[in-house]
Amino acid sequence: MQERSFHSRVRHIMPDLPTAERKLGELLRNFPGELASYSASELAQLAEVSNATVSRFVRRLGYASYEEARRHARDESASGSRLFLATGGKGVADDPKAYCEADIGNVRATVDGMVGGAKVETLAEALLGARKVWVIGFRAGAPLAQYLQWQLLQVVERSVALPGQGQTLGEHVAGIEAEDVVIIFGLRRRIARFDELVALVGKTGARVALITDQSMALRVDVAWHFRCMTESPGPLFSHTGVMALLNVIANRAIQMAGEAGRKRLIEIEAANDFLQEL
Predict the structure, then answer these.
(1) What is the tens place of the pLDDT at every residue in 145-181?
(2) Angle at the Cα of 45 (from 40 to 48), degrees rounded to 5?
(3) Is pTM beyond 0.85 here?
(4) Which regions of the chain are under pLDDT 50?
(5) Beta strand extents in 196-268 (DSSP E only)
(6) Is 230:187 a contact under the CB 8 Å cutoff?
């Protein structure tokens, strides 16, 4: 049986807690990252309870010590849950400039990670020469995958964003061939079987491009791996760096498409005019 998460343990014991422990439990239910950030004494002061209450609460959760509970909470925060980055104390960024500065930093760091544009260049070339381009994204990656596919559609006619509504991935993975390019978004929090998905796609022989955040170590088992910065002073990840990368990829593909790409763009504009859609 899978080990119960720290947050799940807190939720599970909440109905049976005495008053003082309930006060602590409510704090950690709403801001579980506090346990990973503070010592037992600091947490007791923040929750306005005694040190003994913290000790009893930790044992009730099933941990042998406060440090064991703290390690579990810290490990869980590394999985990407933004709930663990929210805080009930002071220090939450409330200045819009802080977010702007973080976004600018994310864009710069992400662009610097493109290694002079060489990886983008080879990916754009592969996209234009592929039999079919598949763009796969889940959760935060889903709208980003749809956006990239929409932009690539200007010059890459045979492209599709997955998963579609009511569809399973298996229905599409079975159709991936060695002449294809598959772009997979792996932004936190990733789906549980993400590694299995990448491995399954890799077995088709198709070239794989991963677009992830900085939490994933560089993978050498794929053709391209772009690691984007997603830091934020608030409780949500910032995806401005990811959007900057997608902007570069789509624009470079359109530029490299040359005359054939321009011909398709002209045909698209003619169809738009005829249908009066825009």
Answers:
(1) 999 999 999 889 899 999 887 777 888 888 999 999 9
(2) 120
(3) no
(4) 1-2, 90-92
(5) 207-213, 224-228
(6) yes
Residue type, position 166, single letter:
G
Cβ proximity of 156 and 182 under 8 Å:
no
Question: What is the fold of 6-85?
Answer: Arc Repressor Mutant, subunit A (1.10.10)
Instruction: Give me the phi and psi of 87, to 5 degrees please.
Output: -135, 145
Give DSSP secondary structure letters for 89-125. SS-----HHHHHHHHHHHHHHHHHTTGGGHHHHHHHH
Q: Which one-letter amino acid corresponds to residue 144?
A: L
How many CB atoms lie under 10 A from the CB of residue 97?
A: 9
Tokens representing 147 are 């956006």
CATH 3.40.50.10490 location in the chain: 96-275
CATH architecture of 96-275: 3-Layer(aba) Sandwich (3.40)
Token pair belonging to 139: 């959760």
